Amino acid sequence: MKKSQTMKSNFSGIIQSDKPVLIDFYADWCGPCKSLAPILKEVKAELGDGVKIVKIDVDKNQELAGKYQVRSVPTMMLFKNGQQLWRQSGVLQKQQIVEIIRSHS
């Protein structure tokens, strides 16, 4: 319970980063979310410190998911300096995600 309160209050601070922040809205019960997790690990391995990847459980953070109108999971959003630069629902391949992040770096 405490973690979701922390996430809500820290979220605006997290997305203020001057490097890209990829938010992954997911749910434990979601099959495609499970297949996206290892892809995001590969993205992080390739880009390293060039990106911050944050996973947010929509069931534990319903208010945040509502604020960003997350209707399906997984939904990824890319932020930089507090601005939402990109958003897509569904699973993408590693190279697609890497190219999107690089195009906004």
How many angstroms does the end-to-end distance come to? 34 Å
CATH superfamily: Glutaredoxin
CATH class: Alpha Beta
List low-confidence stretches: 1-5
Task: Count the DSSP helices.
Answer: 4
Shape: globular
Provide an overview of this structure:
- The protein is of the alpha+beta class.
- It has a single domain (2-103), classed as Glutaredoxin (3-Layer(aba) Sandwich), CATH 3.40.30.
- It is 44% helix and 24% strand.
- It has helices at residues 2-14, 31-47, 62-67, 94-103, and strands spanning 21-26, 52-57, 75-80, 83-89.
- It has a four-stranded mixed β-sheet, covered by helices on one side.
- A hairpin with a 2-residue loop joins strand 3 and strand 4 (83-89).
- Helix 2 (31-47) crosses helix 4.
- The longest helix is centred in the middle third of the chain and has 17 residues, at 31-47.
- The radius of gyration is 13 Å and the shape is globular.
- Residues 1-5 have low confidence and may be disordered.
